[in-house]
Amino acid sequence: MHAIEIDNLTKSYPVGFWKKQFRPALKGLSLRVERGETFGFIGPNGAGKTTTLKLLMGIIFPTAGSAHILGKDIADAEIKKKVGFLPEQPYFYDYLNPSELLDYYASLSGVSATERKKRIPELLERVGLADSARKQLRKFSKGMLQRVGIAQAIIHDPEVIFLDEPMSGLDPIGRHEIREMIQGLKDAGKTIFFSTHILSDAEALCDRVAVVHKGELRGIGVMSELRSSTGGKTEVIWEGSGAVPRVAQLLMDSHVTGELVRATVASENLDTLLARLREHQGRLISVTPLHGTLEQYFLSRTSEPEAARV
Amino acid sequence: MNTRLSAITLNTFREAVRDRVLYNLIIFVLLLVASAPLFSQISIGMQRLILVNVGLSSISLFGVIIAIFIGIGLVSKEIEKRTLYTILSRPVRRWEFIAGKYFGLMMTLAVNAGLMTLGFYIALFITQGVLKPADAWMLVSIYFSVLEFLMMTAITLLFSSFSSPIFAAIFSFALFVIGTFADDLRNFAALAQGVTKWLATGAAYAVPNFASLNVISRVAHDQHIAGKLILYNTAYALLYSAAVVIAAILIFERRNLK
Known about the structure:
The complex is a heterodimer. Chain A is an alpha/beta fold. Chain A folds into 2 domains: 4-227, P-loop containing nucleotide triphosphate hydrolases (Rossmann fold), CATH 3.40.50.300; 234-289, Alpha-Beta Plaits, CATH 3.30.70. Chain A has helices at 49-56, 98-108, 113-126, 142-154, 172-187, 199-205, 223-227, 244-247, 270-279, 294-303; strands at 4-15, 21-33, 38-42, 64-69, 72-73, 83-86, 160-164, 191-196, 208-213, 216-222, 233-239, 251-257, 260-266, 283-289. Chain A has a 6-stranded mixed β-sheet with strand order 6-7-8-3-9-10, with helices on both faces. In chain A, strands 2-1-4-5 form a 4-stranded antiparallel β-sheet, with helices on one face. The two termini of chain A are 22 Å apart. In chain A, 41% of the residues are buried. By secondary structure, chain B is mainly alpha-helical. Chain B has one domain (3-253). Chain B has helices at residues 3-17, 20-39, 47-71, 76-80, 83-88, 94-128, 138-160, 165-180, 182-191, 194-206, 216-220, 227-253. In chain B, helix 3 (47-71) packs antiparallel against helix 6 (94-128). The chains are: A alpha/beta, B mainly alpha. The interface between A and B is medium-sized, with 31 and 26 residues.
């Protein structure tokens, strides 16, 4: 059983006053997320990320298609006991303090009073808000609110956690803190589905990513494969430009600056290159395997014409 | 009451209690009731009558104002501030949310009415020097005001479930004014002919009948209220409110929350 199964999920909004037309916000999204996986849902602003999360959370209803979480239809409210959700730029009841807020949300998720009493201080400690437990949320900074947001999403110990742009609008320290928290959840074996347009966050945390653009899925990539998607190239830097003519046929490209040579070589030719450099007194400086980046993958997916290319 | 429903009810109550505007209204009403004995100095021998009229009318009017003022934002504020997202992503049914909001505001209004009643009887005691058995009839008038709050809260919740706070306030207040003159509308329907009669009768039964809940002048003159009227008004207010809350739920159940 998959943690999340989405089949042909579609959402269109009516536009126009007299002549109703339908503007698609999400076009037939289908994907699967495994249990324990950290899945990045990336795309530019307005790509359909938040629409997808709203559909999965039952905030809006699909025009077509279906989705299941842990094998149960999303229309089944009971499944939400095992689901946590952090909306984009969340706002909470600012007349409450974090303890009261977490108590409210935990009771809505069916956590018993005894369990709530135990979990709330522990969780506030974990997200670094123990000292502000009795302070009203209206006095909280954005970073603190985001930590409250993470806390409310996991207060009921859910199996699947949805995070909508969890790092957006945060300063570098705030982003680092949230990233650490997500890493902690990942280490605890939770399934995490998070949307972001900040690629470095997805790159650092995700096992797989889906690229969504203009309401349609443009591709799903496994991070470890993306990292080696340049086909096993290696960058070699050495001193001794005299060696270049002797090894030229092994190199994919090279740049010479004075005596310094920077060259790219196919990984299968690396050993031969290193042997020849030794023969011709080339002084080796560095050997670096080259990775494909998520950015390259993202740009390649979002720049192609609109067609199925999963 | 299930846990989720009671949690939403209590949170709605807590929000209202922590809202400073609510305190202002309570203080205003208490001041009004407390100043009632001063009116008696300009109308000798009419102290009790004026106090009862001013006091009971204030309890009713301010309760309705609070019902509209808070009720219009009950749903729309949660959508606008997106707090609803974190509620609906939990095992909360949409009907539980609407019902919880309704009970929460009713709880607020009941507590307010209780405080105002206390203030009113203190003012009455100060004016008369004693509380007479006939003064207990005023509780019936206050009870009818609470029934009025039941209906007004349901109406504002209905409008709040599909329109903006401004429109919800306008619609609710308009319906309150029409409902206050419901008897006149019924009289008009009885006298009208043809399609007008049909339309007026329909409208007369659709709008809330607040006129029959207003017994302030009768209790002010120590007239007794028939038990039958109490029963009729109770049943009417409960059924009307239930129908309106169900309508609000049906609208909200299908609504896409942007």
